[in-house]
Amino acid sequence: MLGARRQAVPKPRPQGASAGDDGRPRCPWSNAFTGAAAEAYVAYHDTEWGRPTRDDWELFELIVLEGAQAGLSWSTILKKRDAYRAAFEGFDPVKVAAFGEDKVEALLAPDSGIVRHRAKIASAINNARCVLEIQKVHGSFSEWVWAFAGPGGTPVVNHWTELSQVPASTPASAALSAALKKEGFSFVGPTTCYSFMQATGMVNDHLVSCFCHGQLAGGGGGSGGGGGGGNDVIDGSGGGGDDAGGDAPEVTRPRRGRKA
């Protein structure tokens, strides 16, 4: 009915790349919805996910959003992303680090537009302070984080052919998680860290049949992989325990509960 509010409805989950309305093959999770979530999901997949970012503010934003997702779905976080940017001062870590209890209470109000979870809000503030400390000691949060990618801070390029091959965590994400926790961060378990690494382009986990894989790997259409598995690295700068929650309740990006 015209004017009726459309709900985001998950589609059946394919394993290989699937073509969207424009005919371009994409990772199946990006085409998993109809309704209001579909356009945002496709845009996120095409223009952000897996594209290397080395900006400290953007990296801090993704640390916060990945932590906020724990126990929820990524579509929920995407819907609230503008509200998060407003609530957290554009993810300026200096401003967020200065938040006090009055600000926490304001962010817990129904009109804040974000996930109203006291521990996650407190974690974001704490993590901002940790980012500033790393900047003070190491000069750049980006350089510190990217040391957990490939040699010399280069992206790791995986060659998965099916969604079921994508791991929930890796030794590198476990190492990043341990290092972040040592620096005082929270809501940064190994699976959250792997999702962060995927989102920031530290790893290229687009399926080889997805049009984005070849773009990001510097090739023309899907590089290597054959039967799936394995990885290499490329030069590129373009373009609490563990997680405090379980599997997302709807089809999302590859992350929780997936084993290689």
Automatic annotation (TrEMBL):
It holds the Pfam family Adenine_glyco. The keyword Zinc applies. Residues 1-27, 221-260 are annotated as: Disordered. Zn(2+) binds at C27, H45, H206, C210. The keyword Glycosyltransferase does not apply. InterPro entries: Adenine_glyco, DNA-3mA_glycosylase, DNA_glycosylase. Keywords: Glycosidase, Hydrolase, Metal-binding, Zinc. SUPFAM superfamilies: DNA-glycosylase. GO terms for molecular function: DNA-3-methyladenine glycosylase activity; metal ion binding. Residues 221-243 have a biased composition (Gly residues). Its EC number is 3.2.2.20. One of its GO terms (biological process) is base-excision repair. This is DNA-3-methyladenine glycosylase I. It comes from Monoraphidium neglectum. The lineage of its organism: Eukaryota, Viridiplantae, Chlorophyta, core chlorophytes, Chlorophyceae.
